[in-house]
Amino acid sequence: MPKETFVTAINCMDGRVQEPVLKWMKVRFRADSVDMVTEAGPDNVMVSGSPQTVDLIKERVNISVNEHGSRVVAIVAHHDCAGFPVSKEEHLAALERCVDIIDSWLFPVRVLSLWVDENWEVQQVFDSQDRAARRA
Predict the structure, then answer these.
(1) Nearest to 37 by CA among 20, 22, 23
(2) Three-class SS of 1-43
(3) Rounded to an integer, what distance in angstroms lies between the CA atom of residue 34 and that of residue 21?
(4) Please, what's the b/e burial string for 74-93 (b: 16 or more CB within 10 A of its CB; e: otherwise)?
(5) Largest CA distance in the chain
(6) Which of 6, 15, 26 is nearest to 120 (CA)?
(7) Domains of the chain
(8) What is the CB neighbour count within 10 angstroms for residue 56?
(9) Is the distance from CB of 72 to CB of 110 less than 8 angstroms?
(10) In what order do the strands lie in the sheet with 33-39?
(11) Neighbours of 130 (CB within 10 A)
(12) Is 104 left (phi over 0), alpha (psi -120 to 50) or beta?
């Protein structure tokens, strides 16, 4: 029996973004399962939260990567976020910083940042694979 494939999303706890991200990740990466690490306003938590909270997120991602074999980690922000009620531009700036934080964890993963718009559609903002291709 083939091993189940996993990807990881550091996503908002807001139920409106769970399903669109889950579907997008499964289709985009042909994954069987998406490990969800949820926080209210995860982009803000990652850049401005306590070191202990960021460490808990890292621990959960570690389980997904090292126990489930995930090779993709996405950080998600969305329109109308109650946990981080700022402009899209501020979310995008925070997502950029989140990518650097996730990269600093040195997991052997592809790192993405995703934006979920007012229509609950997922838009890819960043893909570390694109950055690696530009360096080559």
Answers:
(1) 22
(2) CCCCCEEEEEEECCHHHHHHHHHHHHHHHCCCEEEEEEECCHH
(3) 9
(4) bbbbbeebebbeeeeeebee
(5) 46
(6) 15
(7) 6-135 (3.40.1050.10)
(8) 15
(9) yes
(10) 33-39, 6-12, 72-78, 110-116, 122-127
(11) 11
(12) alpha
User: Tens digit of pLDDT for each residue in 13-58?
Assistant: 999 999 999 999 999 999 999 999 999 999 999 999 999 999 999 9
Neighbours of 121 (CB within 10 A): 11
* Residue 37 CB partners (closer than 8 Å, separation 6+): 8, 9, 10, 11, 57, 60, 61, 64
Token pair of 83, please? Answer: 């946990």
Kindly give, in sequence order, each residue whose CB lies less than 8 Å from that of residue 27, ignoring residues fewer than 6 positions away: none
Token pair for residue 112?
């993405």
Spatial distance between the Cα atoms of 59 and 65, rounded to a whole number of angstroms = 10
Reported as a single tens digit per residue, the pLDDT across 108-134 is: 999 999 999 999 999 999 999 886 555
